[in-house]
Amino acid sequence: MVLNELKLANDELQKCLTSLLQVVTEKQKAIIGYNYEQLSKAIEKEESRLFELQKIHKMRRSILSKLKSELSLDVNESNFEDLLEVIQDKINKETWLELYNSSDEIRKRIKEIQLVNDQNKYLADYGRSFIRELISNLVGAEKKSIIDRKI
Q: According to DSSP H, which parts of 33-92 are helical?
């Protein structure tokens, strides 16, 4: 049945998101540790996970379309939460709860990934501004001692 396919797709999505969370955390450690090699590997893994996510998303959209036509639903198939509300009375309560809990876990994982990515962005921006300021202070020292300059 289509609902089983949807559950499997959600499970696959959760696993991929968990893996992506681990990768962005590795990336953060590489940024903090100034480890270029580890950062490059983390970026490669991240790209791979994002490609996987794209495939899962397409598969999930296809399953949601099938479910929509199977249950004769009039709902935007790309919004999973809307679909859950509409099918609540049309499917088994246990199945609905599994789908709801799965959706909730997916949402939480995405928020965790966004938080780590925001932290990584801050670290990268801060590092860039620090290096720019350092270079500007070293190059623009015009006969002044580096020690006398404010850092």
A: 36-70, 80-87
**Please, what are the domains in the chain?**
2-139 (1.20.58)
Largest CA distance in the chain: 79
- The Cα 34–Cα 48 span in angstroms is 22
User: What one-character DSSP code corresponds to residue 110?
Assistant: H
pLDDT tens for the chain, 151 residues: list them: 788 999 999 999 999 999 999 999 999 999 988 899 999 999 999 999 999 999 999 999 899 888 888 888 776 656 788 788 888 888 889 999 999 999 999 999 999 999 999 999 999 888 888 888 888 877 775 655 555 555 5
The CB-based long-range contact list for 55-58 (8 Å cut-off, 24+ gap) reads: 56/9, 56/12, 56/13, 56/16, 57/13
